[in-house]
Give the backbone structure.
Amino acid sequence: MKPAARASLKMAYHTLAFAWLAGKAAVLLINAVHFPRLRPRPTPEGGPRVSILIPARDEAANLPHTLPGVLAQGAAEVIVLDDGSRDGTANIAAELGARVVRGQPLPPGWYGKPWACQQLSVLASGDILIFTDADVTWHAGALGAVLHELEASDADLLSVQPRQNNRTPGERLLTPLVDAAVLSYFPYPVITLPQAAATIANGQVMAFHKSALERAGGYALVRRELLEDTQLARRLKARGGRVASALGRNAIGVRMYRSYPESVRGFSKNVLPIHLHSRPLLLLSAAAHLAVYTLPWLLPVLGWSVPGARALRVLGLLERTAVALIAGRRTPADVLEGLLGPVTPLLALPVYLRAARRRVVWKGREYRQGEGGED
């Protein structure tokens, strides 16, 4: 390569990498100011009737730790739907005091979680329906916080981003990227726009006005979606509904995966839908993250001298630390996760490779990638 062409390539790389990091830094700053945070509050007396609904498949390990906190919130009812579990989930939930319902067999044309949530929505008697995953921890005052934010936002759907509770080194490698994906790519003021495409949601906690969910068509709208949470939020908004989001902070937390391999399996089922079911876009995303976060550390080895390479390294390290702080994760271990920035794109490669397959397997069920859609 001629010197002039090499210099142009280096300058283009420098410009694009800085633009990427500067754009994400701007989004993080906006969200640090504007993204709503839940604050524990007493559950209001005389408020709406609330149903807390838990779709559960093979959750015997999680429910003893999380279900007591849900039951203590004071909701009118807590229903656990046992979705064909093979590990005693139903017995454990019943022993802890929840109302347990055995789920119906998965009908043709439905994916597992949407079908479980659809059944729960029919069974529930509340005016407010709150769907929450079995691995989500509800702390004292969480229900009051959700109801307050739902009313304050005047939303038909409030989605909550629980605070990550990562304990082992393997959990910290990829799981915090859930927060990074939300807080560094989606400025909250844009999320509140009426356009359906400008919408995100987190299925770990989804609080609906039941009437709005029913008017929109319920979970049947996303019966063949692996990314059912965001797709349902977008379709509800497209039908005139209002959608809001909030950070769980001290009110609601989650421990999603217990190891790096489990994180790889879990994320691989959602990554392709996030990239619009486009494998070229998936490949481009993987390459871009390697170029921005990993390559600056390899430039000396490659013998490349790129302007501002040191600044690129520093900005890449600071980004993940900033995400942890905004999400409310402030222990020394949480802050030091920023040091994983250069290796995270490499650790994510197995996720991209699994996501590119035609079929994914999750909790004993096989799904075909790209079959989502609305009839």
In short: The mean pLDDT is 92. Residues 50-257 form a domain with the Spore Coat Polysaccharide Biosynthesis Protein SpsA; Chain A fold (CATH 3.90.550.10).
